[in-house]
C-alpha cells in the first residue's frame, strides 16, 4: 500500500499524496483509523515531523480528522470546503459573469438529476418532495422561508437520483443560492411561477417520465435565469451575504 519515500524535496507532500491516494482508492474508508504515527514512520521511512505535517495537510483538505490521543480518522465526504471556495470565487467577481456560470452549473446537475429521479425515486422520495412543495406553498408570503423550502426541494430531488454524487455536487450551489433566492422571491409573481414549475417537475417524476422531467427542470432553470437577469438589470447588485450594495 505504501512505498518508502527516498527523495527529500517537500517530503511531507509526497507522504500526504500517498495517504490521500489510499483514501481515494478506498484502502482506508470513511470512519477508518489511519495507521499510527509509529506505523507510518516504519512503512514510509520518514520522521515523525514529516508524518505530522502530512496529516495536517490532509486535515486541511477535509480528508481526515485528527483526534488528540486517539489518532487520525478518515472523514465522510463533505461539500463544505467546496462551498467555501465557491463563495470566495463569487465574492471576487466584478463583471457579473458568475450568474451565467451559476445557471450553467445548475443546468448540468439538475436537469440530469430530474431525469434520473423520474426513474429511480422511491415512494419515500416522492413523499419528501411533496412535503417540500407543500412547505413552499405555505411560505410563499415569506421570501426567506420560501427560498429555504425551494432549495430543499432541489436537494431532495438530487437525493432521489440514488447517486450520492448529485447531492454532494449540489450542496455548494444551494449554499450560495439561499440569500439570492430569497431576494429574487420578493418579486410579486416569483413564488407562484416557481410553484408552477416545481409542480410540473414533481408530476413528471411521479409518472416516471424522464424526458419530461428533464424538460420541466430546464424550463424552471430558464425562468430562474430570466429573473436573475432582470434583477441585475435593475442595478441591484447581488450580494450573497443577503444585502444589496449601496
Question: What's the layout of helices and strands?
Answer:
Blueprint: H1 11-24, H2 37-44, H3 48-60, E1 64-67, E2 71-74, H4 80-91, H5 98-120, H6 123-138, H7 143-159, H8 165-184, H9 190-206, H10 210-233
Antiparallel strand pairs: 1-2
Helix pairs in contact: 1-3, 4-8, 5-7, 5-8, 5-9, 5-10, 6-7, 6-9, 7-8, 9-10
Task: Give structural notes.
The chain is mostly helical and 246 residues long. The protein folds into two domains: 11-74, Arc Repressor Mutant, subunit A (Orthogonal Bundle); 80-233, Up-down Bundle (Four Helix Bundle (Hemerythrin (Met), subunit A)), CATH 1.20.120. 67% of the residues lie in helices and 3% in strands. The chain contains ten helices and two strands. It has a two-stranded antiparallel ribbon with strand order 1-2. Strand 1 and strand 2 form a beta hairpin. Helix 6 (123-138) runs antiparallel to helix 9 (190-206) and helix 9 (190-206) runs antiparallel to helix 10. The longest helix is centred in the C-terminal third of the chain and has 24 residues, at 210-233. The N and C termini lie far apart (57 Å). Residues 240-246 have low confidence and may be disordered.
CATH architecture term of the largest domain: Up-down Bundle
Please indicate the percent range of residues in DSSP E strands (runs of 2 or more): under 5%
Mean pLDDT over all positions: 84
Overall spatial form: elongated
Helices and strands, in order, run as HHHEEHHHHHHH
CATH class of the largest domain: Mainly Alpha
Specify the number of helices.
Answer: 10
Largest sheet: 2 strands, antiparallel
Structural class: mainly alpha
Q: Can you list the strand order of the major beta sheet?
A: 1-2
CATH fold call of the largest domain? Four Helix Bundle (Hemerythrin (Met), subunit A)
Q: CA-to-CA gap between the ends?
A: 57 Å
Q: Based on DSSP secondary structure assignment, what is the total number of beta strands? A: 2
* CATH superfamily grouping of the largest domain: GntR ligand-binding domain-like
Q: Roughly how many Å is the radius of gyration?
A: 22 Å
Instruction: State the domain count.
Output: 2
Helical residues, percent: 55-70%
Oligomerization: single chain
Q: Would you identify the regions where 5 or more consecutive residues have pLDDT less than 50?
A: 240-246
Amino acid at each position: 500500500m505504501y512505498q518508502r519515500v527516498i527523495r527529500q524535496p517537500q517530503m511531507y507532500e509526497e507522504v500526504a499524496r500517498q495517504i490521500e491516494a489510499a483514501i481515494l482508492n478506498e484502502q482506508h474508508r470513511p470512519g477508518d483509523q489511519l495507521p499510527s504515527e509509529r506505523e507510518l514512520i516504519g512503512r514510509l521511512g520518514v520522521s515523525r515531523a514529516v508524518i505530522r505535517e502530512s496529516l495536517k495537510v490532509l486535515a486541511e483538505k477535509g480528508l481526515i480528522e485528527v483526534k488528540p490521543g486517539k489518532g487520525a480518522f478518515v472523514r465522510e465526504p463533505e461539500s463544505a470546503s467546496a462551498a467555501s471556495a465557491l463563495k470566495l470565487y463569487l465574492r471576487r467577481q466584478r463583471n457579473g459573469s458568475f450568474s451565467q456560470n451559476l445557471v450553467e452549473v445548475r443546468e448540468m446537475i439538475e436537469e440530469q438529476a430530474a431525469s434520473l429521479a423520474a426513474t429511480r425515486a422511491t415512494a419515500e422520495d416522492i413523499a419528501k418532495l411533496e412535503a417540500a412543495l407543500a412547505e413552499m406553498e405555505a411560505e410563499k408570503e415569506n421570501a426567506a422561508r420560501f427560498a429555504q423550502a425551494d432549495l430543499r426541494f432541489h436537494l431532495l430531488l438530487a437525493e432521489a437520483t440514488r447517486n450520492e454524487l448529485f447531492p454532494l455536487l449540489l450542496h455548494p450551489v444551494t449554499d450560495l443560492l439561499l440569500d439570492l433566492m430569497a431576494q429574487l422571491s420578493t418579486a410579486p409573481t416569483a413564488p407562484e411561477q416557481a410553484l408552477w414549475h416545481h409542480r410540473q417537475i414533481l408530476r413528471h417524476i411521479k409518472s416516471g417520465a424522464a424526458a419530461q422531467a428533464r424538460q420541466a427542470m430546464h424550463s424552471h432553470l430558464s425562468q430562474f435565469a430570466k429573473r436573475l437577469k432582470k434583477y441585475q438589470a435593475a442595478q441591484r447588485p447581488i450580494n450573497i451575504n443577503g444585502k444589496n450594495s449601496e
